[in-house]
Amino acid sequence: MTLLSLSDLTVFRNDCPIVDGVTVRVLPGECVGLIGPNGAGKTTLLRAALGLLEARGYSSLAALPASERARAVAWMPQAREIAWPVSVEAVIALGRIPHLPRGARLRDADRAAVDAAIAHMELEPMRHRTATHLSGGEQARVLIARALAQETPLLLADEPIAGLDPAHQIATMQVFAGLARAGRSVIVSLHDLAQAARHCTRLLMLDRGQLVADGPPAQVLTADNVARVFGVTAFYRDTPQGVVFQPMELTK
Amino acid sequence: MRLAALLLVLVAALFAASLLSGPLPVSAWQALAALAGDDGTPLSVVMREIRLPRALLAVMIGASLGLSGAAMQGYLRNPLAEPGLIGVSGAAALGAVLALQTGLAAAFALALPLSALGMAVLAVLLILMLAGPRGASITLILAGIAISALAGALTSLVLNLSPNPFAAADIVFWMMGSLADRSFTHIWLALPFMLVGWALLAGLGRSLDALTLGEDAAQAMGVRLPRLRLALILGTAASVGAATAVAGAIGFVGLVVPHLLRPFVGGRPSALLWASALGGAAMVLAADIAVREVFPTRDLKLGVLMALVGAPLFLHLIYKTRKELP
Q: A70 and B222 in contact by Cβ < 8 A?
């Protein structure tokens, strides 16, 4: 069963292709890292795949009606926006909106999904606190729980670990890797190649809108690819404690 | 639910107080009896044709302003937004001023509200053209500011060129907003528009809740933003346009009421919709009682009193927001 299928997806801005002929299939159980330098088109690719942007080519998600799509994929934009001083629980319950019949209140199944998401992200102690008063890392966890409560087979996240401390970064990536092991799939864009190498089962490398590499981290993060796309040299070792990847110097 | 009951009781109590407020020295019991049955006395005429429509209009106008203010703040995710932002009240005021200036208002009773409604419709068409289905929320704000400025300039032009100082005074007093001397004719004129507006705005709750997480996240949760924006503009225009057409410009209700009630509904935009509708009704009823009781001999205008109360509240809001910012 394919969760996402893109074929020849292309996005133009003023005649210039931002995303250029990307073809990808994502199956259940994958933790996919989307990597590439600033301006490579990571966010644009994710938004076009969701149908939030006009695009040429085909995306299986964009082809769905809006209400059906909301049950097929959850989306975490890069901006961690919580506009009003609502409780943590209320924010997470927003994830149930796509499942609620018109005009209905939360049903037992919805409350169970909210409780499960709160338990998953260990948010029980702050359940009734005001979400806008939490720290950035805590808000990020609340927003992940919100996406989990949507109970979709696929989760798309745009730079979910940007601006977080190391513990929150690792915890977030472990949640995503755990979802993939449980049979759901996650596509996450990120700049931290070390985290990508350690936690993702598959990497997609974007360069100026084109998909230049697609495969397991060891095959994508080759010295040649990293130098060509990111313009840096890197240290890569498979150690007993897991993969260690460290960008080192600029290639000039 | 407790808040709903509380607000309902408050509106009911203020409605009764509004019916009993006025210069006639009669007991509450007499007044209510005269209201219940038409006994042919002057008191019955006063109660049924002056005080009842006045109280009903206060409820309708307050609910329209509160509801559209809550919807507008929810959509723009900004506690400083208000229904006048899309330029409809300014345009409606211009329509009314034109009717007063040309003498149409004196020629037949409904010329003024009809002309105001016509201008409000024109403003909506203009704003839909500018900030149509593909526009962003910032386009809506900018288009609203432009339309308000244009309507304001044209209103000033009419005043400027007015050859008759009495007409100019009439215009100025009308623009201050008032519920005095309104009849059931005004209610029947405004009610259909308001009902349509309320229906459109009341259906937005879930989409506005989803917007708490931003436009992108809401869209990915199945919210159709172009439809939301259309319903918001048409709903606000219909209810606030009709309110301005019959009562003149009454500011601050749409701004202050949602702000005051937000903490009591846990910040949820959907719950704030009905709460602000009730709260707006209570606020306009209270203000309309105050203008009659504070200066019974002077014709204190409702819009003036509302701004006197609203502006300090607004300052308080700015003060608090300033403290919460880093």
A: yes
Q: pLDDT confidence of A10, banded at 50, 70, 90? A: very high
Residue of chain A whose alpha carbon sits nearest to that of B216: A77
Residue A32 binned pLDDT confidence (cut-offs 50, 70, 90)? very high
- Distance from the A13 Cα atom to the nearest Cα atom in chain B, whole angstroms: 16
Does the interface ipTM go beyond 0.85? yes
Question: Around B224, how many Cα atoms within 13 Å sit in the side-chain half-sphere?
Answer: 9
What is the per-residue pLDDT across B286-313, written as a single tens digit (0 to 9) for each? Answer: 999 999 888 877 888 898 998 888 888 8
Q: Do the chains contact at B220 and A82, CB–CB below 8 Å? A: no
Mean per-residue pLDDT, A185-202: 94
Name the CATH superfamily for B2-324: ABC transporter involved in vitamin B12 uptake, BtuC (1.10.3470.10)
- CB distance B209–A143 less than 8 Å? no
On whether the CB atoms of residues A245 and A193 are closer than 8 A, the answer is: yes
Residue B119: which residues within 8 A CB-CB, separation 6 or more?
A: B91, B92, B94, B95, B96, B98, B151
Q: Are strands A154-158 and A16-26 parallel, antiparallel or unpaired?
A: unpaired
By residue range, what is the domain housing residue A203?
A: 4-79+153-250
